[in-house]
């Protein structure tokens, strides 16, 4: 079985010095080596090194930590954001992410079949259950969500996201993990004067990329059996991105102190988007002259996917130590891929020739209220990737511009927006008809992978419930804030009340329940 590798290199403790080392890397030499690496990778693709006999799935799952309330000084501090001690991440078996409050789990890749899907769900639950026990000992809880909204006790969100220090002329975000590439982005010669977060009634400027630490996500991976087929699967993935994003929207609110002073609660509710996570990632990392985050274009060939990484603008030309791994033969290109952010992106790696793999990383979906809901998106994406290309489903003829518009409509309005689709009969479909076609083919894809009808329906039921009820996590959050406002509360109090209820409901349902149980 071929699998993908999620290892990260070790780092020393002198962060400023390591950032300076990165800034000393010759950008032209870095680009030349990445281009040479691309030729190595394309040769291996032509030779069939990345071909497999089966589809494989995996999942990256991000969380943030909050106070569990036991040791809170006041009611206002309950479920406030907390920094995760690095030693605790090691005990959990989790990985660090951008912010000190983040933790990330990466599942072991599994074949796409009933046993593999069960293994994915069981691994998430087993590891998360153990992590929750570790966190509880520190008075904290890990939360699965799209965006946090209660800042750390005694701090504002603005302070937490913009606080930085200068060490030997190097600007370092105080609350960012020791990820060199993120710190280096604020210090290089092409760094913008500031990184700007832009969303309805929200504006924030920071001198680092730390505002991105507002958001958390899940990222399903689908490894294609034959690398040459990746573009066809990729183009289908672009067409399902909008509809799946629409069902998963879960970040309609920012922390209260980030809103403009003159914005009213009614305006925030009326004008706010359902998935502000998309806007945060794009506006912050696209600051200045670089466009690092975007909805990507269709692919014609697998070589095109490699060339796009080479052609992507480089903000952080980091040096690379080459070892004995197979993918060390194109290590500089892999390093550049680390800052090649697209909402759907191809990945090529593998520690050995036998484990070399070509896969699609699906990045639009926010963290979800429960594990079952998260696995539903993983299964739906995998099922669609199995079924749609094999069927030559007519939605591939949906114009790319329409697929892109679907994506940003979903960001703004969730499934209540006007999304376009072409069904199996070649007819235009919207609304419930769109999702009937989409989920039928996701189910059929899981059946092709060996799932029984009962198993396939089990995995997809959380998404069907959202279609049937018309309620997404973003809708649930909006309704709770609206109800609190109707009862006479101010916006900040209403937002905190909603967020605390979200965490409390999740504490009872994260491992075994589903979002539909909340309704």
Low-confidence region ranges: 1-12
* Rounded radius of gyration (Å): 22 Å
- What is the makeup of the main sheet? 7 strands, antiparallel
CATH architectural grouping: 2-Layer Sandwich
Number of strands: 15
CATH class: Alpha Beta
Helix content: 40-55%
How many helices does DSSP assign? 17
- Write down the oligomeric state: single chain
* CATH-defined topology: Creatine Kinase, Chain A, domain 2
Give me the secondary-structure category. alpha+beta
Number of domains: 1
* Relative strand content: 5-15%
Protein name: UCP012666 family protein
Pfam families: GCS2
GO molecular function: ligase activity, forming carbon-nitrogen bonds
How would you summarize what this structure contains?
This protein is of the alpha+beta class and 519 residues long. 44% of the residues lie in helices and 13% in strands.
Detailed description of the structure:
- By secondary structure, the chain is an alpha+beta fold.
- The chain has a single domain (about 15-515), classed as Creatine Kinase, Chain A, domain 2, CATH 3.30.590.20.
- It is built from 17 helices and 15 strands.
- It has helices spanning about 15-25, 25-45, 85-90, 115-135, 155-160, 180-185, 230-250, 265-270, 275-285, 300-310, 330-335, 370-390, 400-415, 430-450, 455-470, 475-485, 490-510, and strands at about 55-65, 100-105, 110, 140-145, 165, 170-175, 195-200, 200-205, 220-225, 295, 340, 345-350, 355-360, 420, 430.
- Strands 1, 2, 3, 4, 9, 12 and 13 form a 7-stranded antiparallel sheet that branches. The protein has a two-stranded antiparallel sheet with strand order 5-6. Strands 7-8 form a two-stranded antiparallel ribbon.
- Strand 14 and strand 15 form a beta hairpin.
- Helix 7 (about 230-250) packs parallel to helix 13, helix 12 packs across helix 15 (about 455-470) and helix 16 (about 475-485) crosses helix 17 (about 490-510).
- The longest helix is centred in the N-terminal third of the chain and has 23 residues, at about 115-135.
- It is globular, with a radius of gyration of 22 Å.
């Amino acid at each position: 079985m071929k699998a993908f590798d999620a290892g990260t290199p070790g780092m020393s403790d002198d962060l400023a010095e390591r950032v300076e080392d990165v800034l000393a890397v010759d950008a032209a030499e870095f680009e030349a080596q990445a281009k040479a690496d691309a030729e190595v990778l394309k040769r291996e693709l032509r030779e069939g090194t990345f071909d497999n006999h089966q589809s494989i799935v995996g999942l990256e799952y991000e969380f943030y930590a909050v106070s569990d309330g036991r040791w809170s000084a006041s009611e206002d501090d309950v479920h406030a954001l907390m920094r995760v001690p690095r030693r605790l991440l090691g005990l959990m078996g989790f990985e660090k992410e951008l912010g000190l409050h983040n933790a990330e789990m990466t599942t072991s890749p599994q074949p796409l079949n009933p046993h593999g899907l069960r293994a994915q769900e069981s691994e998430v639950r087993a590891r998360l259950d153990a992590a929750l026990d570790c966190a509880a000992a520190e008075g904290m809880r890990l939360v699965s969500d799209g965006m946090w909204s209660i800042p750390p006790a005694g701090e504002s969100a603005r302070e937490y996201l913009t606080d930085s220090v200068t060490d030997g002329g190097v600007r370092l975000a105080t609350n960012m993990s020791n990820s060199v590439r993120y710190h280096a982005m604020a210090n290089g010669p092409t760094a913008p004067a500031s990184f700007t977060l832009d969303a309805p009634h929200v504006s924030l400027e920071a001198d680092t990329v730390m505002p991105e630490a507002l958001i958390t996500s899940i990222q399903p991976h689908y490894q294609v059996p034959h690398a040459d087929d990746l573009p066809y699967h990729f183009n289908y993935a672009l067409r399902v991105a909008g509809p799946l994003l629409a069902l998963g929207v879960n970040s309609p609110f920012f922390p209260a102190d980030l809103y403009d002073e003159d914005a009213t609660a009614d305006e925030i509710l009326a004008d706010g988007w359902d998935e502000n996570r998309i806007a945060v990632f794009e506006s912050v990392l696209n600051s200045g002259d670089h466009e690092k985050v975007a909805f990507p274009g269709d692919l014609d060939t697998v070589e095109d996917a490699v060339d796009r990484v080479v052609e992507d603008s480089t903000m952080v030309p980091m040096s690379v130590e080459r070892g004995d791994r197979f993918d060390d033969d194109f290590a500089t290109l892999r390093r550049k891929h680390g800052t090649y952010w697209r909402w759907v992106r191809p990945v090529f790696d593998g520690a050995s020739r036998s484990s070399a793999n070509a896969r699609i990383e699906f990045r639009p979906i926010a963290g979800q209220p429960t594990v079952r809901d998260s696995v539903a998106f993983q299964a739906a994406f995998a099922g669609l990737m199995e079924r749609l290309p094999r069927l030559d489903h007519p939605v591939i003829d949906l114009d790319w511009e329409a697929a892109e518009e679907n994506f940003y409509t979903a960001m703004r309005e969730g499934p209540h927006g006007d999304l376009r689709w072409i069904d199996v009969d070649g007819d235009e479909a919207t609304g419930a008809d769109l999702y009937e076609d989409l989920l039928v083919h996701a189910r059929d894809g899981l059946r092709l992978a060996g799932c029984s009808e009962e198993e396939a329906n089990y995995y997809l039921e959380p998404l069907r419930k959202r279609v049937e009820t018309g309620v997404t996590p973003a809708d649930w959050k909006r309704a709770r804030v609206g109800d609190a406002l109707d009862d006479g509360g101010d916006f900040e109090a209403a937002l905190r009340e909603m967020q605390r209820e979200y965490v409390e409901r999740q504490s009872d349902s994260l491992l075994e329940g589903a979002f539909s149980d909340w309704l």
